[in-house]
């Protein structure tokens, strides 16, 4: 496994091919859109998805905790699929979560799916987290005007970006990071999270001068560039 | 020989008709209360034969209530038949009420039909399933006297057929006295249809009435002038000849195999149409109104020709058609005969039809089909077990109707022929799935849809569950569609969403018989304008191609093997085979020819198996797996009806090791599970079973609605609960439909020790068609990451390796802009090629 370094707001960050971000200077692991208990949310609506998504997501997260040994985790919102998600955690998963987070500072950034702090779980909840030159929020904030630049850097989730890389046998689609020097959007980490094409105006509009995409691979990332915007809208629905 | 009672005899006589023997036979069976299957060629007065016993009975004993239920695979057919029945009923003054009930029937009429059903109700399998899920079904169907299943050959053996069989089993309980009538086109094996129809699942309970065809059809093959195409399935080169024949006949149906082909042929014909003949287009993606308009014009004799897909295969009687032209190989003998039967709907005159093969292999295939027709040999598939996903839907529907005991429902379901061999374990697991998901981890108890009372009866939880079921009823899984709307004008029809997503403003494509320019996507529709520059593309549709019947494939092999039979073939095809004999060799009768050659930076391997596309698909998975292990770096493969072709990064050597019999044993299941086919199968099964929401065509997507990705569910389920009922259902369906393992076993056994490897320096004549074929399967696994790395390196070359993580990117991104058409792909992650569904219109079209 090899992580890729990028610089954002002057900070050196590591992009992990599993779809998470590590900030070595602050011993911080950043993860977006866990959507825990999405399966049970669907089950309540009459669609019995396999009830293993939380277990699957947490076991992948546990692996990353062993890899990076962070002192702090920032979850960039939509950590639960709905506002009652935390209360539906099965006992084994709840216990696993407590065990995983012991000795780690946990910051729950609130998202549109989980606008309230998760009950009964360790950690602090916040609308956004500022640390040094970086700000961590659920959804990227478009610049107020095209002349106002972000000071520092912004790290966010929400959009579940994915991208298709053309290869000699056709396109291959993977979840991806989207970045320019000021802004970084993380792919969704949850087991049942689909994606939105990074060319969609909802994402591309955040990167008017183009971006670099990092597609997730098994052992490494594959990078390609995204054109500056100005392309017509093709598909319009942003995932929640 | 019996006679008709009055007033029927007088009515027949008044039109100069005499009742046909099979009509009388069905009348006798009906009067004796016996079920019957009528197998007759098109145009035999089949439908009237089916209804006659009911009409006679109702004329004799008029009474209110539902007497006869008629089920047709097509809504339009049900409506058409209802109209046709009105005429004799009114002319004879019979006190019989006839109504239809389809998805189009307005809510208030449905409600009235529930309270006061008509005597004859004409409907579809989906609408029947819906009616049976309602609490009133018991009263509505209690007095039912007869069930007529039309075009039963088109339903049995499909998932719609499974659904219908289950509905029939339920009718057997609600109305045990109702006799059944099946109407079928000529088929090779009527036994499975008898079983399908039978109230007990046993064919003996159904009387068979078979009508031998009248005059044998007159069939011929026509080839394009000039060069005979190597590949392609469109047949455009033959359009001048097709046009000439349209001009010479009164009314022609031009049958094609896919909707994309229909669009292209239609355009090509209109370019040639100097006489401005009335030529129309008919396929399943056009709006219903448009199709009805074409059908009405056809019936009124206003058209000279209609270019049609399978949308005209069934049903509606055109009367005056005097010529059928089949463009592209017919793919099956029974299907060909049925299409041919569309011409000259009178049994005593021969039908006239012309086959127009699109490429060289198709010439051989058409020749083989003609031989088969001459020898009166039909092909047909053996029955397959009913789908467990359909059963899941049915179980929930039955609970919505009324509480049931699992033991009773199990017994009832097994009276449906497709489920005769259903194990109790599978039934219980399906029931468990419907109840609460049926997962080993029982965390969904509080969300359960069904509960059991003290007596063991299963009840549905609430009306919400019932509503959700009724929204999702049916076994046809639509891919997401987008309406195509002219700017400031009408909706022209629907194309698949992914196709639209590959267009940028200004791109043009052919649809509904015109060249359209894509402007923008507005909510649920693609706004287009007429005209446009550049090479138009053609939207195509997943799964629209029929596989060649393996039986016909065998006949093709026979012809290739027998130079004496070549005289049946046109000179160009003979030359092609001779060239193959010279440059490589002809595929031997026993044994297996395998060619390898380099091309375009990859190594190709072509195996001439002639076992049909479905068997080749499976073989392709297994062979590429072994190639991966041998270090050849397989990248993909393609299965045609005749050959298997693979391509790899390195030259395959010792190829006989790749085709050893033991490839069937090792890791077959693991490998299959990774395949894109199983993922597609799973998506359909999960949707039918109610796990995923169905796409409702044209339905506006709510903002922020998240569609569930079936692939992700499949991966999680496979990891945590590999024996879950939905995965078992997926494997069962794949084993029956796609992976004819036994067939491959026989092929490999036959080839053992007789594999002939021909390393060539370039592609052989016989391999050319395969290389330009669409429909590639992608090798999953390690190769994908390798390809990404390669593509990334290529981009780096273009950008000079510039890595700009901060500052401006615009200066490097200009040169490597990703054009959407570079990444055309259907939505499935595992099938990333554009070739499969989209083709640019051939140059010849623009020049014609």
Automatic annotation (TrEMBL), chain A:
Residues 28-130 form the Calcineurin-like phosphoesterase domain. One of its GO terms (molecular function) is endonuclease activity. Its EC number is 3.1.-.-. The keyword Ligase applies. It comes from the Bacteria. Keywords: Endonuclease, Hydrolase, Ligase, Nuclease. The keyword Ion transport does not apply. InterPro entries: Calcineurin-like_PHP (IPR004843), Metallo-depent_PP-like (IPR029052), PdeM-like (IPR026336), Pesterase_MJ0037-like (IPR024173). It is an enzyme of class 3 (hydrolase). This is Ligase-associated DNA damage response endonuclease PdeM. It comes from Belnapia arida.
From TrEMBL, chain B:
Signal peptide: none annotated. Residues 27-186 form the Helicase ATP-binding domain. It comes from Belnapia arida. Residues 238-389 form the Helicase C-terminal domain. Pfam families: DEAD, DEAD_assoc, Helicase_C, WHD_Lhr. One of its GO terms (molecular function) is ligase activity. This is Ligase-associated DNA damage response DEXH box helicase. Residues 820-848 are annotated as: Disordered. Belongs to the Lhr helicase family. Lhr-Core subfamily. InterPro entries: ATP-dep_Helicase, DEAD/DEAH_box_helicase_dom, DEXH_lig_assoc, Helicase_ATP-bd, Helicase_C-like, Lhr-like, Lhr-like_DEAD/DEAH_assoc, Lhr_WH_dom. Keywords: ATP-binding, DNA damage, DNA repair, DNA-binding, Helicase, Hydrolase, Isomerase, Ligase, Nucleotide-binding. Residues 828-837 have a biased composition (Basic residues).
